[in-house]
Design brief:
Pfam families: DnaB_C (PF03796). One of its GO terms (biological process) is DNA replication. This is SF4 helicase domain-containing protein. The chain is an alpha/beta fold. The protein has a domain of about 190 residues: 3-Layer(aba) Sandwich (Rossmann fold), CATH 3.40.50. It is built from eleven helices and eleven strands. The strands form two sheets. The chain has a nine-stranded mixed β-sheet, sandwiched between helices. Strands 1-2 form a two-stranded antiparallel ribbon. Helix 4 crosses helix 6. The longest helix is centred in the middle third of the chain and has 19 residues.
Length: about 290
């Protein structure tokens, strides 16, 4: 049992004071400035309704942590919804800043295809490992991490998304199962001393309200998730709901990241941009206005 003796073990704390934040960042500067990043040994939850961009943000974080210049170690993505090939193609579209739908439809021009293939080549230098087992369970994630750990440091674990996971054992109900999965992911964060970022679904209550801005109480089958997470971030894109009411409404690209739990800091809203053509969250400078 881990025990911390204040008479003997304060040295590590003293040495860590004043040092840079020990963790990973999202690559979205406005968010990173607000929350610092995702700390080692901590589980954070990022949640949203379908279509808000949960998987897009997972890929953004993956590319930021896994880039060759960062050299933090391997970043493992457990994707329960997409195949490795699909995730890789979407990563390349993001990295190359190209319209993925034009590529899938077969109508992309030579310039776009060249940028896409160049990005695919660049990805071979990224420290990214993808597991697309749709039946992955916490224990199998542990085994994967142990294998990786023998070869290189582990920078981060990303799970997309938590409600698609299950347990091998029998449980009373789904809420109990999701709560136990959440506790297991937190335990993995502490066991391997890595940031664990779990993406999560929000319930339908969001869409039935006059103001569809999400709240922490909208976490679907949340159970222990609110307690287990050091940080909870909710994704909100006003244009998405505007276009649900009027398909001809303009996609402004406005996005809001609602930090509703931040154990070591403030809570609040972070404004950013969502570029739908290459499905990526970015800061909101003028240089991206033509990409929406």
């Amino acid at each position: 049992m881990p025990v911390f003796d204040l008479r003997k073990d304060l040295k590590d704390i003293k040495e860590s004071i004043g040092k840079p934040f020990d963790g990973v960042t999202s690559g979205i500067k406005a968010l990173d400035d607000f929350i610092l990043g995702f700390g080692k040994g901590e589980m954070s939850t990022i949640a949203g309704r379908p279509g808000m961009g949960k998987s897009s943000m997972a890929r953004d974080i993956l590319l930021n942590i896994g880039q060759p210049t960062v050299n933090e170690g391997a970043c493992l993505l457990c994707t329960l919804e997409m195949s490795c090939n699909e995730v890789t193609e979407l990563l390349a579209a993001n990295l190359g800043k190209v319209d993925y739908q034009s590529i899938k439809r077969g109508c992309a021009g030579d310039k776009v295809l060249t940028k896409f293939h160049t990005a695919l080549e660049q990805l071979s230098q990224y420290s990214i490992i993808i597991n697309d087992d749709s039946f992955v369970v916490p224990d199998s994630i542990r085994e994967i991490l142990k294998v990786i750990e023998k070869e290189e440091p582990i920078a981060c674990l990303i799970v997309d998304y938590l409600q698609l996971m299950s347990l091998r054992k029998q449980v009373t109900n789904r809420q109990e199962e999701v709560s136990e999965i959440s506790r297991e992911l937190k335990a993995i964060a502490r066991e391997f001393n890595i940031p664990v970022i779990a993406f999560s679904q929000l319930n339908r209550n969001v869409e039935s309200r006059v103001d569809p801005r999400p709240r922490m109480t909208d976490l679907r089958e949340s159970g222990a998730m609110e307690n287990d997470s050091t940080k909870i971030i909710l994704i909100h894109r006003p244009s998405y709901f505007d276009r649900q009411l009027d398909p001809n409404a303009e996609d402004t690209g406005e996005a809001e990241l609602i930090v509703c739990k931040n154990r070591s800091g403030a809570c609040g809203n972070v404004e950013c941009a969502f570029i739908s053509s290459w499905m990526s969250f970015r800061n909101k400078p003028e240089e991206y206005e033509n990409d929406f």
